[in-house]
Amino acid sequence: MILHSFSLRHSLTVMAASSLLFLSACANNTTSEQGINDPMESFNRNSLKVNDALDRAILEPVAKGYRKATPEAGRIVVRNFLRNLNSPTIIGNELLQGDLKGAGNATARVIINTLAGFGGILDLAEQGGIEYQPEDFGQTLAKWGVGDGMYIMIPLLGPSSLRDASGQLVDSYADPLRMYLFNIDEEHLHYTRVAASVVSKREELIEVIDDLRRNSFDYYAAVRSAYYQHRQALINDQSGATSPEIPEYDDF
Amino acid sequence: MKNKFFVLSVVAGLLGVSAPSFALSQGQDFTNQNTSRSILLVSAEDGAQAKQFVSTMGDKAISFLSNASLTQSQKESEFRKLLNQNFDMATIGRFALGTNWKNASDKQKAEYQKLFNDMIVKIYSGRFNDYKGEGFDVASFQDSGKSDILVTSYIVPHTGSKIQVDWRVRNKNGQYKIIDVIIEGVSMSLTQRSDFSSVIQRGGGNFEVLLEHLRNY
User: Fold this and answer.
1) What was the ipTM of the complex prediction?
2) For chain A: N or C, fewer Cβ within 10 A?
């Protein structure tokens, strides 16, 4: 959840990913009720404890402060702007997934919102019916048939899977905007963008995380379940259809 | 540059490990299958009725939520009414237990269902005051499973993005009942089931551990 800087974030992901590879070879195969592969559960549970404590101490107060200090209209402007910056990644992944319609939509969005929406601060495309559809390389890999590998609660970063963490790495490296900012020695702008994205996203999730904390007895299991379900919905580009079937019980 | 290659090789390694097969069309097939099934099983009439059912329920919810003259406890009793009329709480509670259901005694099952009901009421009662006049649009339907209809709706705030909420609706003896609520792809029932099953499993398979949590909620 907390992304301090690009380099820290990435060295951590790489470190976590490579040590996970080693550990997973030694761990027992444990599968949750939902069929999630979580051989690293005890490590993951500790990571969640650390992440949760850091979140409560730093990120959550920052997100709440941001909500308090910025009127909703302002926060939407920030969100639109950040989403617009993410367009190259979305278009690239739509193409890699062979989703030409999605790529077309994302392209139309960036053109409309950048030109008519004052550099992306207004989401005129959405008002015109072309909705924001987040795509990333983790989703692309899933579309290509790559399994999630296993669940990982990455220290400082939050819930992920082997596949999605790898995807995130690729997205960051391949992001043309990041390359451009690094080339013109304006790395700090990239870090600002990453930090702003984290705070903006956390602000959006204030109620969701509150609810999950309050309404679950085992927060870890609830987060893991919600993460996988949410990812599955993103991968399939549709929300309800990926929900579980419910048997017709007759043994009450 | 060196660093970059290191990262790429790690990624390649990861992919190699978790990617036994590349099936490009998997995701797309899934979608197509769903659309064609919906033509086969759910008639337009059933779908329209299910949509109407969800829409009526949403209107009732909005009418008590936006009624400023009601006290919190009056709202709570309105909510309880709405829940019992429109939701199949027995099925929802039963699903949330998963395979642990058969390990519980009849007495435990009865207590569980009651506590589960109370928990749901408490969860949502805490959110009544968050209602700020958001709109509720029922958009479409599709069939799902043997006899269920998935009704897609959106909660539309005055500003900002709408939130997708899907309702799994089942026709039970001629009456529509909601058996799951799916918010942005996350099924409330499945999340609860994962939570409950983990609690029981970590409590050494003891059903009482879950009941104790529910009693204290």
Assistant:
1) 0.84
2) C
